[in-house]
Amino acid sequence: MKKKKNNHFLWILLAVVVVLIAALEIYERYGDQGMTKNVTNVNTEKITRIALSNAKNDQYLSLRKEESGLFITSEKIQIPIEDDRIQPLMLLLTKMTPIERVSTNSEDNEQFETMDEMGLRVTAYHNKEILTDFFIGKTMENENHQMMTYVRQQGTNDIYKVQGDLRTTFAQNFLSKFFLLI
């Protein structure tokens, strides 16, 4: 009787060991998919300037925080902007959580439009210190008809898919005011 209990215990122990080894193997192979908690994680109170650039079209705009308010500026123009117009942008800079990492290969930047020549580059500063610097790439609709955008932090090859149409968010709240007034 004691021998049967020992055999039963050994089988259970063997099953636990096999499950643990399988779990470790799966984690080593797939890990956490290289996911970062947030693509951006910025204290927006520190932001003094946000620069938007697109080398393909040779465009450059900046949102500056000054004592007298917020202004959209380019080389020759400075236009005041209301605080409520930039709240969606600030929310993105506070926390942009990825759904999945889609690539770690720099050769995929063209496919996902997350490079200087194709993407919209967003750089947030506190005076001269860079707080975040990333590219907004291609936007697409997923199988559930939700808008998704590809983003990549400057200096990395990791391309993430995030929820929302970030190009439109920036265009509606930042660029549209600028282009309507020039």
Q: What's the short version?
A:
α2 runs antiparallel to α4 (166-181).
Please describe what this structure looks like.
The protein is of the alpha+beta class. It folds into 2 domains: 31 residues; 138 residues. Helix content is 34%, strand content 34%. The chain contains 4 helices and 9 strands, in the order αββββαβαββββα. The chain has a 9-stranded antiparallel sheet. The longest helix has 29 residues. The N and C termini lie far apart (91 Å).
Radius of gyration: 23 Å
Helix content: 25-40%
* Strand content range: 25-35%
Order of helices and strands: HEEEEHEHEEEEH
Mean pLDDT, as a whole number?
A: 75
The biggest sheet, with number of strands, parallel, antiparallel or mixed sense and barrel status, is: 9 strands, antiparallel
User: Given the C-alpha coordinates, what overall shape results?
Assistant: elongated
Low-confidence stretches at least 5 residues in length (pLDDT < 50)? Answer: none
Major beta sheet, strand line-up: 4-3-2-1-6-7-8-9-5
- Overall number of strands: 9
Oligomer: single chain
Structural class: alpha+beta
**How far is the N terminus from the C terminus?**
91 Å
Task: Tell me the domain tally.
Answer: 2
